[in-house]
TrEMBL record:
Organism: Cupriavidus taiwanensis
Domain HTH lysR-type: 11-68
Family classification: Belongs to the LysR transcriptional regulatory family.
Top-rank taxon: Bacteria
Keywords, comma-separated and alphabetical: DNA-binding, Transcription, Transcription regulation
Protein name from the UniProt record: Putative transcriptional Regulator LysR family
InterPro entries on file: HTH-type_LysR_regulators, LysR_HTH_N, LysR_subst-bd, WH-like_DNA-bd_sf, WH_DNA-bd_sf
UniProt GO cellular component terms: cytosol
Length: 309
């Protein structure tokens, strides 16, 4: 008769939390300092977990602690448990605080003045006790924050393929435009994408959606990707000053050309030099979304419909 695997004994939640800190720090001493416990006490915690797992969870290397295959498996499940516990605490706290609460919000920088500031002013009229913690990043970083449980909601460009663990609602299109300084010496000759192939660019980092979408404009017509002079994870709007004082090309929402950030810049008016991406509000599909977060999500959607973002 075939034997069945022996059951793994229950693991303590606080041990799993400590284990995740060790994973993140990769060093026992730093992890113990972060947790406010002694190194020997943390070693006993890890030994207890390894005993319960029946397998080593870490390899000791000169570079620090590296998780084994079993350690990586445990870390995946431990993070889910940690997120679920955080959701549980949030839900219980929300029930105590009724309609008050905190919204951890991520947004692309462009939306802060154009959408969030006026929307928050209206939202506080009906939710005066709400609090917001807002971080601005580009879309790829925001999606990672959401999946890691660092944000409740994000306002970002919708990925071409939305991960299965994320739910979303559309907010409207975000237009992007290839731009240069108004006095660019070759501006009048920029009539096709091929005319831009020899120029040097300020572009988003290769890991970002904006960079991928820009390069797709060129490769779709058989051209090589833009020649990079500067690449960055910062918002393209942050490089307005550089574009104004150089012959580099860049990208920017057309609306910004009518604001101070776009002073001295001009759109390159040629086929294929402007395009649109869908903006969305996104949240974890299987995570707890507090009533205040739900209210703000719905307020964002209604505002964008009203203002035709």
């Amino acid at each position: 008769m075939a034997s069945t695997p022996s059951a793994i004994p229950p693991m303590r939640f606080e041990d799993l939390e400590a284990f995740l800190v060790v994973i993140d720090q990769g060093n026992l001493h730093r992890a113990a300092e972060t947790l406010g416990m002694t190194q020997s006490g943390l070693s006993k915690t890890l030994a207890r977990l390894e005993g319960e797992a029946g397998m080593p969870l870490f390899e000791r290397t000169p570079r620090g602690l590296v998780p084994t295959g079993a350690g990586r498996t445990l870390a995946t499940h431990a993070r889910r448990i940690s997120l679920a516990a955080g959701d549980m605490r949030s839900e219980l706290a929300e029930q105590r605080a009724a309609r008050a609460g905190t919204v951890r919000l991520g947004a692309i920088p462009y939306l802060l003045p154009s959408l969030l500031s006026p929307l928050l002013a209206r939202f506080f009229l009906s939710r005066p006790l709400a609090t917001f913690s807002i971080e601005t990043h580009l879309s790829a970083r925001l999606v990672a924050m959401l999946q890691n449980g660092e944000a409740d909601l994000i306002l970002a460009a919708r990925p071409a393929s939305v991960p299965a663990d994320i739910a979303w609602l559309p907010l409207g299109p975000l237009s992007m435009q290839i731009v240069c300084r108004s006095a660019h010496p070759r501006r009048d000759g920029f009539r096709t994408l091929a005319d831009l192939a020899g120029e040097r660019w300020v572009v988003p980092a290769s890991s970002l959606y904006l960079r991928q979408w820009l390069e797709d404009r060129f490769t779709a017509v058989g051209l090589p990707p833009p020649r990079v002079a500067v690449e960055s994870t910062a918002s393209p709007v942050a490089f307005g000053e550089l574009l104004r004082h150089s012959d580099l090309l860049g990208i920017m929402p057309p609306r910004m050309l009518r604001q101070a950030e776009g002073h001295g810049l001009a759109a390159i008016d040629a086929p294929g030099t402007s395009w649109q991406h869908e903006l969305a509000v996104l949240w974890r599909a299987d995570g707890y979304l507090s009533p205040i977060c739900q209210d703000f999500r719905d307020a964002v959607v209604a505002w964008c419909e009203e203002m035709a973002l």
